[in-house]
Amino acid sequence: MASIVFHRASGWVDRWRAYRILVDGVDVAKLKRNQSVTIDVTAQEHVLQAQVDWCSSPVLVVDLSKGGQIDVDVENPHSAWSLSRVTVETPNEYLRLTLRD
Q1: What is the CATH number of the domain that holds 31?
Q2: What percent of the chain has pLDDT over 70?
């Protein structure tokens, strides 16, 4: 068995919106501001993604074949000024998933 802990900080952008967390294409959790959520998964490779409305993060592939736990930060890295451009031009880069060290 393995687990993935998703963390979301208190960013200003999207402060009232929950992000949907997908593991292997399946919606497994909603992540609100200042929240963490732990998802238990099988010990194998998994594809992670976060979504909000029609926008998402690029997929992040993680190898948990040895089990254990990983921590992933979920954030919107954009300023309020660039949001309208990002949602139209690169909606699949609206959010970012980052593995914690």
Answers
A1: 2.60.40
A2: 90
